[in-house]
């Protein structure tokens, strides 16, 4: 049996080509634009003082709160002038190799659709609010912008070693759920935290989750869940620190040394960890999402 898990290929809609790009960004109804505005307002009650400076500055520089779902053309012009990135519309999750190819060319593929009121608090598939509100402001930071491009380039190497799941764990614990030290305290830069209502408070102030300094070798061996709050958050010193630990390091040896599966549970604290906060794990031990446990 080959290593890894078989996943059926994503079905490509007829209107998109091999690049998976939509011919044009959708236009949104008044109600859909109102959903953007409500989501935006709700996040802004939580994020000042919790999100990192790069994110808050990026939001302002791109003026994402001007009302309604932002126009990708306008966003791309403004972002292009800052760091050379653009935002391109895609229908849904796209295949890994296509995702990597866009990132390697400084194009951020953003979901075209917006969540409905039924799925206001939680969606499994990334929508335009997660992708544009959560990810795009961070791309105004030059070091972070370079990291994302290098991550795209790194994808193909991981595929050759059959270690995409490990690289996926790194993405998960940095780009989606990462924390960064600022003024002696962790702040949020992970898009998965930034685009949802409850996780910023849980990640930063919760007693339950572990907060551990990022160690790439360890994180790439760590399992992750995609459908609940995280039991562990990994913290970087700065975006330069992230860059040193990843881009400026050759992963060939690391990939050869990694096993096929993950070694560490997502709740584990291990000997090598530089622990900022050792979590009680109460939320997850009580059963997590769906169990009625409060995220504390
Ligand atoms: C491992 C890989 O980086 C990841 O799963 C990719 C796959 N395809 C994607 N496609 C879209 N549209 N957005 C994403 O964040 C991703 N993530
Ligand atoms: N330096 C890594 C590339 C990389 C960049 C950014 C993130 C992850 C990996 C390699 O040699 O493969
Ligand atoms: Fe994301």
From TrEMBL:
Keywords (A to Z) from UniProt: Iron, Metal-binding, Monooxygenase, Oxidoreductase, Phenylalanine catabolism
Keyword Iron: yes
Annotated metabolic or biological route of this protein: Amino-acid degradation; L-phenylalanine degradation; acetoacetate and fumarate from L-phenylalanine: step 1/6
Tagged with keyword Iron: yes
Enzyme nomenclature, EC number: 1.14.16.1
Names of required cofactors: Fe(2+)
GO MF assignments: phenylalanine 4-monooxygenase activity
Top EC category: oxidoreductase
InterPro entries named in the record: ArAA_hydroxylase (IPR001273), ArAA_hydroxylase_Fe/CU_BS (IPR018301), ArAA_hydroxylase_sf (IPR036951), Aro-AA_hydroxylase_C_sf (IPR036329), Aromatic-AA_hydroxylase_C (IPR019774), Phe-4-hydroxylase_mono (IPR005960)
Matching SUPFAM superfamilies: Aromatic aminoacid monoxygenases, catalytic and oligomerization domains
Protein name: Phenylalanine-4-hydroxylase
Organism: Novosphingobium jiangmenense
């Amino acid at each position: 049996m080959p290593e890894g898990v078989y996943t059926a290929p994503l079905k490509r809609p007829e209107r998109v080509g091999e690049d998976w790009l939509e011919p044009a960004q959708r236009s949104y109804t008044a109600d859909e634009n109102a959903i953007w505005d409500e989501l935006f307002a709700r996040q802004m009650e939580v994020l000042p003082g919790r999100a990192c400076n790069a994110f808050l500055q990026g939001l302002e520089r791109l003026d994402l709160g001007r009302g309604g779902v932002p126009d990708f053309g306008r966003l791309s012009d403004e972002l292009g002038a800052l760091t050379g990135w653009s935002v391109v519309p895609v229908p849904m999750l796209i295949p890994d190799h296509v995702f990597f190819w866009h990132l390697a060319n400084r194009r951020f593929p953003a979901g075209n659709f917006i969540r409905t009121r039924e799925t206001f608090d939680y969606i499994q598939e990334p929508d335009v609010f997660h992708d544009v509100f959560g990810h795009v402001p961070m791309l105004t930071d030059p070091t972070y912008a370079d990291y994302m491009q290098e991550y795209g380039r790194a994808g193909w190497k991981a595929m050759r070693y059959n270690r995409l799941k490990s690289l996926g764990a790194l993405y998960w614990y940095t780009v989606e759920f990462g924390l960064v030290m600022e003024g002696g305290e962790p702040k949020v830069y992970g898009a998965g935290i930034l685009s949802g209502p409850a996780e910023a408070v849980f990640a930063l102030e919760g007693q339950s989750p572990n907060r551990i300094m990022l160690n790439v070798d360890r994180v790439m061996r760590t399992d992750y869940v995609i459908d609940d709050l995280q039991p562990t958050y990994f913290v970087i010193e700065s975006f330069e620190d992230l860059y040193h630990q990843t881009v400026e390091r050759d992963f060939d040896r690391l990939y050869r040394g990694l096993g096929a599966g993950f070694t560490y549970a997502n709740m584990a604290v291990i000997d090598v960890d530089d622990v900022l906060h050792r979590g009680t794990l109460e939320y997850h031990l009580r059963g997590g999402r769906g169990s009625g446990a409060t995220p504390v």
